[in-house]
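Before relying on records like the one below, remember that each one covers exactly one chain. Contacts with other chains, cofactors or solvent are not represented anywhere in the record.
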Amino acid sequence: MMKKTKLVIISFSIFFLIAITYFTFAAEIRRKILTYIFVTHDYYRLNALTIDIQNRNFSGVSEKLNNYIDISKKLSSEKSYMIPGIYNAIELAASNALDQEDFNYLEKPLLDFVDMEPKLYKPNVWLARALSDNDYQKSITLLKKAISISPSEETAYREILRIAQVNQNNELVNEITNFISRD
């Protein structure tokens, strides 16, 4: 019995060492395995978010997005492979947010994501929408930044006009309409 146990332990150890050595030198296999791990993780995260979105639980959505972003930051202080997955998760949440309260729940994850990826158009627009009721000026700044990133996209123009209308800022409405008609 003792010999069988030793044999199993030694066999497992040798197999483990061979596997580690193989993965150390086989970059393509290592890359494929890590890609599958990240894709599976992204799939899991999107499914978890979908349940909260279907239940209109944007508090839970926000918590899960914050967790996702925190994990990404722990794995890499710079850009990570998880950013496209985070973007897809935030896009899913933002596209299902119906009112200002929903966007307010998404404010913190959007702030963190825009800090990670400041040059993406849609996250700037979504963050501007989230901030529109409590930080009007920053919201306008983000929308102007989004317009400079992609002047042909209409969403930022629509949002800046919505915010100006809600805040009864006719001067901003005129500025934007003049800017649009200038093109």
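Residues 109 and 115 are 10 Å apart (CA to CA).
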